[in-house]
Amino acid sequence: MSGSNPTRSVALKILHVAAECYPWLKTGGLADVIGALPSAQCAQGMDARILLPGFPAIRAGLIDAKRVAVMPPRFVAECVLWQGRLPDNTPVYVIDAPSLFDRPGNPYADGDQRPYPDNHRRFALLGWVAVQLAAGHLADWRPDVLHAHDWHAGLASAYLKHAALLRGVKPATSVFTVHNLAYQGLFPAYIFGELGLPGNFFQYDGLEFHGQLSFIKSGLQFSDRIATVSPSYAREIQSVEHGCGLDGLLRYRAADLTGILNGVDAASWNPASDPALPGHFDAEKTVGKARCKASLQKELGLAGAPNALLFGVVSRLTEQKGLHLILAGMWKIIAQGGQLMVLGSGEAELEAGFKQMELDYPGSVVVRLGFEESLSHRIFAGADVVLVPSRFEPCGLTQMYGMRYGALPLVRRTGGLADTVVDCTLENLADGTACGFVFERFEQADFDAAVQRAFVLHAKPTQWREVRRHAMGRQFDWTAPALAYEALYRAAMQAGAA
């Protein structure tokens, strides 16, 4: 902020702005990040808080809720700001606007997966309220940093820029994290007039994107700093292949772009104490993992075969995740006595493909459509291998959960998967760094070869146990990412004060 001189001894105040947050509402990894990063920052002495839309699950979960402000009409006639806390005591603000947020379906679409036609108003309100908080209009607390996450919060950056133009000073430093560039928040140009922004904000160097309006471009264009969720993904999104049409802008802002690898909540994901598991274990004492595998096979109706190589998939069922590679290669897994457990939902074609596979291979393949948090923990604990053959993957938490629970990840070398999984090559096995199976090209032959290498290693129990022990010992907690974000915030603040 203008005139500030931030030093390490000053506790930063950060407002995280997002659409979902674990444990209240989760459709993907974004919720895990919002549920863990602010808590880690508070543990390091920062004053981190969260702003969320008032979806029913979020309002119901808010602890010690109290009304903070009644907001003037903007996008909706009735709007109240509440403050409460997460179960871990992280402070949370919630926008209570029932006509916008109190709906069935997931946060972004109805029960038939059709995006709500007024999503532009729903998430414009989220960005607008964030800036009202940053400007001190709604509470007696003002953040130094407004940290917006993904397209849902992207418009906060534009509103912050507009506030700075009106006041001559910006209310807060802005950071925007891209969790997945493929989801951009695109809307018809005619809705721009509803947003309350100057006309010149709808230009090629503003919100305009090929004749449409892009919320994610707002974050990329107007934020002081841009972050994304792994170093490799930060490089990849500057390419035509992975830039989703925004690679030119990202190359232009390359000096302001940083890749910070996500972490894992070590308390929620701990096989030594996880209440969802029938047996507990750690890297040195793994008897409980065998118990988890046998229990999972029984629970799901898989054949009770302790030596079968059990593959697990916990994923959104989308083309991005490379799941057609699993469908096409499954017969080779079954032919060698392997088993597969799938948990997820998504594209109808993939759901149908996996359900057909379950019919074709009874006792060897089980598919559960939907999502159940506790079952996902049991799958990681019971599986030998977790499959993440993504076409692209900004960070990926699945492979980290798998390693923590002794399920070796089989991944494509892309994004955060490349940054976290070390392939079981002869060299890496020899020096003790191997922790999974990595294939290069997004092609069936490469995936099948990686699967075959998993079977070969599994046939060598001593080596398998050593690789598993190393994988379970990898550290992916939130300490390092929280410190990296603090450094990013302070650099942005110092640049703004210069």
Structure description:
This protein has 498 residues and is of the alpha/beta class. It folds into 2 domains: 270 residues, Rossmann fold (3-Layer(aba) Sandwich), CATH 3.40.50; 187 residues, Glycogen Phosphorylase B (Rossmann fold, 3-Layer(aba) Sandwich). The chain is built from 18 helices and 18 strands. It has a 9-stranded mixed β-sheet with strand order 3-4-5-2-1-6-7-11-12, with helices on both faces. A 6-stranded parallel β-sheet has the order 15-14-13-16-17-18, with helices on both faces. A hairpin with a 5-residue loop joins β4 and β5. α5 packs across α6. The longest helix is centred in the C-terminal third of the chain and has 19 residues. The termini are close together. The N terminus is likely disordered.
List the SSEs and their pairings.
Elements: E1 13-17, H1 29-43, E2 47-53, H2 56-61, E3 63-70, E4 80-85, E5 91-96, H3 98-101, H4 119-134, E6 145-149, H5 155-167, E7 173-178, E8 186-188, E9 208-209, E10 212-214, H6 215-222, E11 225-228, H7 231-236, H8 247-252, E12 257-259, H9 287-300, E13 310-314, H10 323-335, E14 339-344, H11 348-360, E15 365-369, H12 373-382, E16 385-388, H13 398-404, E17 408-412, H14 415-420, H15 426-431, E18 437-439, H16 444-458, H17 461-473, H18 479-497
Parallel strand pairs: 1-2, 1-6, 2-5, 6-7, 7-11, 11-12, 13-14, 13-16, 14-15, 16-17, 17-18
Antiparallel strand pairs: 3-4, 4-5, 8-10, 9-10
Helix pairs in contact: 1-18, 4-5, 5-6, 9-12, 10-11, 10-16
